[in-house]
Amino acid sequence: MTRETVTHRDGHVYEFGPAMDPVYEAADGESLTIETVDSLNGEIQADSDLLDEIPEEVNAATGPIAVAGASPGDLLAVEIEDVRVAEDRGRVLTAPGFGLRQDDPEIDHPATRITEVAGGGAADGDARGGAIDFEGIDVPIEPVIGTIGVATGGETISTLTPDDHGGNLDTTDVTGGTTVYFPVFQEGAMLAMGDAKAAMADGEMCGTGAEIAVEIDATLSVIEDPAVSPDRPLLDTGDAVKTVASAATLEEAVELANGDMLDLLAHHHGFSRTEAYLFSSLAGGLEISQVVDPQVTARNAVPSEYLSLPF
């Protein structure tokens, strides 16, 4: 079956807001291929290309894509079937005033290293395998969608910032094989995504992964009247259910993620909130997504043997 392709050339955004104009309307349950550009719009192509500051327009997100039938109070399920690198190099870099160690005098700000794709990937016509080369060290390609989200409930938020609508979550689980669920705040949901990485560690310490263009195969479905209605993004990796939250501090983010998890555990097991809280300290745990954006992002994971989603 032929999939429609939505590309960054059709349209892309640098902010998520309450009023977004779609570049494509998908049917409920439709499968698409979504093409993205790297987070820096192809501006960095060599080690000598340096980023003196974070651009005003960064993390171009392909879309928005309206999904027919999606209304406030629903959930949008984004089943990510595959993510393929679509160019022969990524780039990992620092910029002044950005990153976990932005004030470390022994670390150059700015600095760039091009991470060429080798042993598979776009350079060899196999975008699903292979590695990137960092200073002679092979790092396996494990693509991540850094920025993915829907129209907000009110505030307009840059694609650099994560929040309840999603956005710049920089979460390694947002990849092939994961279904991401978003609360729908506006008619059509208005999904957009980009800012992919060929590889990225949890935390994204220097402020980037190996930034790269990708092709994403995804199926978009609307869930009406969910038994539990999360206020923030939610992941099903197949092995675990993970609540995702972003806030000004890591402490606030993990508290929000844990609170969302308690709702799911209480519903699934018939627990009281106290029992759900106690159980959350026994199975799974807290994980850091990123600590470098204007808000930080964390997740609370529980293995699928202990929890299934109520929708």
Automatic annotation (TrEMBL):
Domain of life: Archaea
Transmembrane segments annotated in the record for this chain: none
GO MF term list: hydrolase activity, acting on carbon-nitrogen (but not peptide) bonds, in linear amides
Coiled-coil region(s): none
Gene3D superfamilies according to UniProt: 2.40.10.120, Acetamidase/Formamidase-like domains
Name of the molecule in the record: Amidase
